[in-house]
């Protein structure tokens, strides 16, 4: 039994490790200071970087998080704390599950029709909103699962002190489940950080620095897409480099969030 | 003795099941009232109705009146949240807040009621822990997690937490049933000491415990109040045959 488990575990790790090591092997040589700070070079020129794509990805994640996280977390709190049973909440849960399964390109088309077409041009905020739509069901579902795991005795203990429901949620339930919630947030961010299709239809891409959220904005996945399908060796090399940066970015966000939520309490021996 | 609470024809449901079938009884001030009876007789539900904790679960319903001083606590004008800060509760299983230190656990109620001054909190935490007989054991490690304590200490921590908001009544739902005999002894001594400051209603499975600590005992059976009397009288000469059967161990 143990042998099988070990065998299958290593089997599962093979793709992970091979993808990671291949990306590092191919991508790391492209990394230098210019790569992080410079704009993309024109065809035929050497040098240049993807600084605008890195900033763009941050901007897009920020917009998506500002919209998606509050909505997703509040929805989960509502579903678990205020309306755990009944037609209304099971309908919401069903819709969220459906939303989880919608291909991201479809969400891209929706965002294109809803946000881009009426305005008349691509924009960073429409990309951010498209990503938020992808993020909401992931965050809601994972947060709700975590909230369901919190022991009810804790809530009762709080009610019995004359603490109101929302204060109980805010000061007792959420601190207890914050680690799990953050893990769900990370899943959501990691998922949208690599989304390409919806961004091509909304944020589009941009070869220049852009600080306005109403203009098209560059992003790492869109940049990887553009570079990887090009016939130029230099660009393909840059696509690997950008993939490497993207993975590191997701990893860093993960580590940062985990260290932020580390327990404040002293460990007991 | 003065009465503190009175229930009138109190009925409670859990879903379709009627748990309480019309309980009318007085709870006396600065006394320990014990509620005894076999499992499922409605004794926990009864005390959960006294601070409106029964209704926090879904599908529950309460009928009848519960007078606290001169007010019906089920009246429209009563805020259950505010009521629960006057009628505290200790549960069967110790439930200190897992994310909080010993200090924070005791201070939680006060903090969430808006008390912020450190000196005030320090005093209140020390006083409550003293009252719960836990101060000497934990005074050097107030910043340790509440859940790092032993089961008996955790239960006394929960008592301290409940006392910190200065309730007038303390409801205890089998507070010692998950504890070892020594810890049980601590809790019992504590209850006897505390009754001069707060009125205590304690649900217990343990008849010896009821006999040892309570002034009045109520015997519940299948949602009815069978007998309610001074503890001594009830244990020496119960007037109802079913009470006699129960306390002499013939069922339950």
UniProtKB/TrEMBL annotation, chain A:
Q: Which domain of life is it from?
A: Bacteria
Q: A GO biological process this protein is involved in?
A: phosphate ion transmembrane transport
Q: Which UniProt keywords apply?
A: Cell membrane, Membrane, Phosphate transport, Transmembrane, Transmembrane helix, Transport
GO cellular component, alphabetical, reads: plasma membrane
InterPro entries according to UniProt: MetI-like (IPR000515), MetI-like_sf (IPR035906), Phosphate_PstA (IPR005672), Phosphate_transprt_permease (IPR051408)
Q: Where the protein is mainly located, per its record?
A: membrane
> Per the similarity annotation, which family is this?
Belongs to the binding-protein-dependent transport system permease family. CysTW subfamily.
The protein's name is Phosphate transport system permease protein PstA
UniProtKB/TrEMBL annotation, chain B:
Q: Name one Pfam family in it.
A: ABC_tran
Query: Entry's CDD domains?
Result: ABC_PstB_phosphate_transporter
A GO BP term here is: phosphate ion transmembrane transport
Q: Establish whether keyword ATP-binding is in the entry.
A: yes
An example molecular function term from Gene Ontology annotations: ATP hydrolysis activity
**What are the protein's UniProt keywords?**
ATP-binding, Nucleotide-binding, Transport
Q: Which GO terms describe its cellular component?
A: membrane
Report the SMART domains cross-referenced here: AAA (SM00382)
Family matches, as InterPro entries:
AAA+_ATPase (IPR003593), ABC_transporter-like_ATP-bd (IPR003439), ABC_transporter-like_CS (IPR017871), P-loop_NTPase (IPR027417), PstB-like (IPR005670)
- ABC transporter domain residues are 5-247
- Cite the SUPFAM superfamilies for this sequence: P-loop containing nucleoside triphosphate hydrolases
Name of the protein: Phosphate ABC transporter ATP-binding protein (PhoT family)
């Amino acid at each position: 039994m143990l042998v099988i488990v070990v065998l299958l575990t290593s089997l599962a790790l093979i793709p992970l490790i091979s993808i990671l090591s291949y990306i590092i092997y191919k991508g790391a040589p492209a990394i230098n200071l210019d790569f992080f700070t410079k704009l993309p070079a024109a065809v035929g020129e050497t040098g240049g970087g993807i600084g605008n794509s890195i900033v763009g990805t941050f901007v897009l994640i920020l917009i998506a998080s500002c919209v998606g996280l509050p909505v997703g977390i509040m929805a989960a709190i509502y579903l678990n704390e205020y309306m755990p049973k009944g037609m209304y909440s099971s309908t919401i849960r069903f819709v969220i599950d459906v939303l989880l399964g919608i291909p991201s390109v479809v969400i891209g088309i929706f965002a294109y029709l809803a946000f881009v077409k009426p305005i008349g041009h691509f924009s960073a905020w429409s990309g951010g909103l498209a990503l938020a739509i992808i993020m909401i069901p992931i965050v809601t579902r994972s947060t709700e699962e975590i909230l369901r795991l919190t022991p009810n005795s804790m809530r009762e203990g709080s009610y019995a002190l004359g603490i109101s429901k929302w204060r109980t949620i805010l000061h007792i339930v959420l601190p207890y489940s914050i680690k799990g919630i953050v893990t769900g947030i990370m899943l959501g961010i990691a998922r949208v950080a690599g989304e390409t299709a919806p961004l091509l239809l909304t944020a589009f891409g941009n070869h220049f620095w852009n600080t306005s959220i109403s203009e098209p904005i560059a992003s790492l996945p869109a940049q990887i897409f553009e570079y990887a399908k090009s016939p130029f060796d230099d660009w393909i090399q840059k696509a690997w480099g950008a993939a490497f940066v993207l993975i590191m970015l997701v990893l860093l966000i993960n580590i940062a969030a985990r260290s932020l939520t580390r327990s404040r309490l002293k460990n007991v021996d | 003795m003065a009465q503190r609470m009175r229930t009138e024809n109190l009925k409670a449901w859990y879903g379709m099941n009627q748990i309480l079938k019309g309980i009318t009884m007085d709870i006396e001030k600065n006394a320990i009232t014990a509620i005894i009876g076999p499992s499922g007789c409605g004794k926990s539900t009864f005390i959960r109705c006294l601070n409106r904790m029964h209704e926090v679960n879904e599908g529950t319903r309460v009928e009848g009146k519960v007078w606290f001083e001169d007010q019906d606590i089920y009246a429209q004008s009563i805020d259950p949240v505010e009521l629960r800060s006057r009628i505290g509760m200790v549960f069967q299983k110790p439930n200190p807040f897992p994310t909080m230190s010993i200090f924070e656990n005791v201070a939680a109620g006060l903090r969430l009621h808006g008390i912020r001054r450190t000196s005030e909190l320090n005093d209140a935490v020390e006083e409550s822990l003293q009252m719960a007989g836990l101060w000497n054991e934990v005074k050097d490690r107030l910043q340790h997690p509440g859940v790092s304590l032993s089961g008996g200490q955790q239960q006394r921590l929960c008592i301290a937490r409940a006392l910190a908001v200065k309730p007038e009544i303390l409801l205890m739902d089998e507070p010692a049933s998950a504890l070892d005999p020594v810890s049980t002894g601590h809790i019992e001594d504590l209850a006897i000491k505390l009754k001069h400051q707060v009125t205590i209603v304690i649900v217990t499975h343990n008849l010896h415990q009821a006999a040892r600590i309570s002034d009045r005992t109520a015997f519940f059976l299948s949602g009815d109040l069978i007998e309610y009397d001074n503890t001594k009288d009830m244990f020496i000469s119960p007037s109802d045959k079913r009470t006699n059967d129960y306390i002499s161990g013939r069922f339950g």
